[in-house]
Design a protein that fits this description.
The protein is α+β, with helices and mostly antiparallel strands and 274 residues long. The chain has 2 domains: 4-127, MutM-like, N-terminal (N-terminal domain of MutM-like DNA repair proteins, Alpha-Beta Barrel); 145-268, Helicase, Ruva Protein, domain 3. Helix content is 24%, strand content 22%. The strands form 3 sheets. Strands 1-6-7-5 form a 4-stranded antiparallel sheet, covered by helices on one side. Strands 2-3-4-8 form a 4-stranded antiparallel sheet, with helices on one face. The longest helix is centred in the C-terminal third of the chain and has 20 residues, at 197-216. The radius of gyration is 20 Å and the shape is globular.
């Protein structure tokens, strides 16, 4: 599933290409995504509107249009949003496309159909059910060890589960939680009630460093992800633990192990992480 770095990479790749362009029309070939696409509302609130900015909140891509409207997309498990020439043939699993005045098409391809396409008033975003319970941004100015420690107070959850709770911290999914905990030297099953202030700061630094490096390397492409130009990421080459069960730890020479937490695979080094 695309996580924060992948959506940020997508945002950065699309921003210089589509700002100032106008949506001429919309095509919805398959409305059956995670939530049904409202064809009429999408057409009514986006056609003829110019794209003014492209930003990100958590794993959502937000395109602000003139007239106070925002187009919201989520890639789900397997989505790709790419910009192609209008004449490029429609791909299998291409469910929604925005045809631009510049003669290009911004298309959402989503084989598993867990993606999301919504449109709403920009001033409605903060109170919308998709956004109002979201936690802090790990690449934002208000993120650090002190904030993590405060959010963990009176909790006893395993630290990896805590990091993946979007009500606490957004965009840190399975891959980056495993990698950040490895860099911080913290065991994924350790209770958040047993982490010192010093280690919280180390973990916050590791999260920020891991996510920033992933963005710089174009995200992680294990199966589906590509940026707005169709380029795949390279951070999978830098993964130290994720999907490396049985391989040698590059730091201590031990063996990377895999456990299951809340139905998700967790990878860690028992020699480096305590």
């Amino acid at each position: 599933m695309p996580e924060l770095p992948e959506v940020e990479v997508l945002r950065r790749s699309l921003e210089p290409l589509i700002i100032g362009d106008t949506i001429a029309r919309v095509e919805v070939w398959n409305a059956s995504l995670r939530e049904p696409v409202d064809r009429r509302k999408l057409e009514r609130l986006t056609s003829g509107r110019t794209i003014r900015s492209v930003r990100r909140r958590a794993k959502y891509l937000l395109a602000d249009l003139d007239g106070g409207t925002t187009l919201v997309t989520h890639l789900g498990m397997s989505g790709r949003m790419t910009l192609v020439a209008d004449g490029v043939p429609r791909e299998l699993h291409e469910h929604v496309a925005f045809f631009l005045d510049s003669g290009r098409r911004l298309r959402l391809r989503d084989p598993r159909r867990f993606g999301l396409v919504l449109v709403m008033g920009t001033d409605e975003l903060d109170e919308d059910r998709h956004f109002r319970h979201l936690g802090i941004e790990p690449l934002g100015n208000g993120f650090g060890g002190r904030e993590l420690e405060s959010l963990a107070r009176r909790r006893r959850a395993p630290v990896k589960s805590f990091l993946m709770d979007a009500r606490v911290l957004v965009g840190v999914g399975n891959i980056y939680a495993s990698e950040a905990l490895y860099r911080a030297g913290i065991h994924p099953t350790r209770s958040v009630s047993r982490i010192s202030s010093v280690r919280w700061q180390r973990l916050a630094d590791s999260i920020r460093q891991t996510l920033s490096q992933a963005v710089q390397e174009g995200g992680t492409t294990l199966n589906d992800f590509a940026d707005g130009r169709g380029r795949e990421g390279m951070f999978q080459v830098s993964l130290a633990t994720y999907d490396r069960e049985g391989e040698t730890c590059g730091r201590c020479g031990g063996t990377i192990r895999r456990i299951v937490q809340s139905g998700r695979s967790t990878y860690y080094c028992p020699g480096c992480q305590r």
